[in-house]
Amino acid sequence: MSIEITGVSKRFGDFVALEDVSVSIPTGQLTALLGPSGGGKSTLLRIIAGLEYADTGTVGIEGLDATALPARKRGVGFVFQHYAAFKHLSVRRNVAFGLEIRKRPKDEVRRRVDELLALVHLEQFADRLPSQLSGGQRQRMALARALAVEPKVLLLDEPFGALDAKVRKELREWLRRLHDEVHVTTVFVTHDQEEALEVADEIVVINEGRVEQIGTPDQLYDEPANDFVMRFLGPVTQLGDQLVRPHDVALAPGADDPDAVAGRVARVVRVGFEVRVEVSTGEQVVLATMTRTEFLRLGLDVGATVSVRVVPGAPVVAAGPGSSSVRPGLEVRAG
């Protein structure tokens, strides 16, 4: 079930939520709308769902112009961040709700609910109330309820945002497996870069109401269109006037390389298997990350003179206006 967004704009008073946004989402794909808070991604999702209407532009769902259609006629399932469960109904009745109001036969409702509870691994909790479930279980219940009416499109608005980090990681792995089983076209909103990179087939980066870049996780990470995308999808550091990933910064003892920038190790921090080395070049502080094995091989320590360069072939982007990694008054100390 493909989705075509063409020239969509939306204002709330003087605030421009979306400006001339065009996105094509292929059938069966899991697409992430990624961006900072207030960037317009949730507004776009609500326009696809029919919960908001665009000021200009069109929304097409499987070739049908859905721009003016009400939400109930779009064949869309919607999952909110905070579950929106019926607190007085059991898990089974929550999942069955959409089918019951459509007056489906009781045998069909029972069979479909049983299938979905098994799919989301909640069979043993069918008779519990939502308050008796964990946050992750309630979110799985909400997904089952959205899938019950066999939607053409499944829309998820920051579905794991209210959960702790461990549960979020477990649920996004589960969502990827679930999507591969049900093959429904899915669009989810997130501001979590790791979540988008891990789960999505394609990512739409939205900032200040505009689409910055669309591509696969690998394309966006390895070929960022601009400094915003580079900074938003993963850690960056600055060497001269270029932004680069810290793991693409190479260090070598001494300052003999004429093609490199000379610097001095200012701080060393070990985080598990990773070592983060901050190098002061006088005007900038450049961050390099490496494995502990590589760090020990280089034999570096705080105060050591080093050559700093970008790994050949690594993605780099020109730093935008006002970008700087200068940190005045850096204290040299061991981490």
From TrEMBL:
Residues 3-233 form the ABC transporter domain. One of its GO terms (molecular function) is ABC-type sulfate transporter activity. The keyword Transport applies. Keywords: ATP-binding, Cell membrane, Membrane, Nucleotide-binding, Sulfate transport, Translocase, Transport. Coiled coil: none annotated. Pfam families: ABC_tran (PF00005), TOBE_3 (PF12857). Its EC number is 7.6.2.9. GO terms for cellular component: ATP-binding cassette (ABC) transporter complex. It comes from the Bacteria. It is an enzyme of class 7 (translocase). The keyword Nucleotide-binding applies. PANTHER family: SPERMIDINE/PUTRESCINE IMPORT ATP-BINDING PROTEIN POTA, SPERMIDINE_PUTRESCINE IMPORT ATP-BINDING PROTEIN POTA. This is ABC-type quaternary amine transporter. It comes from Jiangella alkaliphila.
